[in-house]
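Q: Convert this sequence to structure tokens.
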Amino acid sequence: MQSGLNDIVQIVLDELVSSGVELGLQVAAFVNGELVVDCWAGVADEATGRLVDGDTLFTSWSTTKGFVATCVHLLAERGRIAYDTPIAHYWPEFAAAGKEAVTVRQALSHTAGVPQMPDGVTPEMLTNWDAMVAAIAGHELLWEPGTKFGYHAFTFGWILGELVQRVDGRPIAQFAREELCAPLGIDDFFLGISDSEEPRVAPLESALPPSPEDLPEIERQIAPPEVTTAEVFNRPDVRRAVIPGAGGIMTARAVARHYAMLAGGGMLHGVWLLSPERVDEIRTPQTEHLLDLFGAKDVMGLGYKLGGNAAEGRAPAMGEPGTFGHAGHGGSLGFADPARGLAFGLTKNRLRAWDDPTQSTAYRVAEAIRRRLDGGS
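A:
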């Protein structure tokens, strides 16, 4: 490992835990394909006192979306999916209620107009793949596709997961395992945990404020408070379900290794999964010209958030423009920084939010790495 870098990150993690900001967390980072940071701190399970180690698994919410997007790009690379083709070409039932023109590009960039969850969705329904995709296929559009950005917090995963299955024939969990994770040597990314692996999972703990009583209805539709909780995602049946917009369970090493391939222009350790041209395309801004549902900016690539200034709708924790990745509810993060050859993964069990993104755990840790790589202390 790069001299001193792992020690620097370990000090930051230990401070975050000792101060009470975090309960337990892991960080991994690759530079030019080499694992240079692999450290952890804190408690995985307060009830038992189990400590975090390098093999602890964390439910990492929308950090999962980056893996799902990459699966779509693998099929695009093979000529089996085209970004500007309507989803209904591959999944005819999706054309219902006026959605026949919604494209793969619009689904990847959260401009499809179908962010709403089914009315009355329950934790049990989250675990029923067929029920969820049928309900989403039947949804009406909330806006004309391509005219607005609206974060598809949960539906992103079912729309693109079903697309992968319709094109390839394999469920998204199997496709991700066999076509993305296995070639890269990723052992610890799960869309649906097994009985044997569950003892490694760190229960989630929420330090988030309760949902306000006057939460706008559109926000309730997109991420229903009744199911967007630590308690729901700690349930054994939910952990075992395939929820590709928010339910991935993983280690920081898995996250960082995935992004190491993308930081390497589509290649890691001699394994090519995507072309450099494809990697450049998927990190090209798609939504700079759009306002989101609440009148703000949100700049997305094809399935990934883009790095940069928060005032411009970008993600500061990822660094400068040109970086790309995905964060998860409560503070997990994975990203690729091709200019530095850096790939980053952070997983954690205490769900937190920050008014200032430059005060977040992910920013603090990633910035410590960038400073060191750029010649600082």
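The first strand starts at residue 24 and ends at 31.
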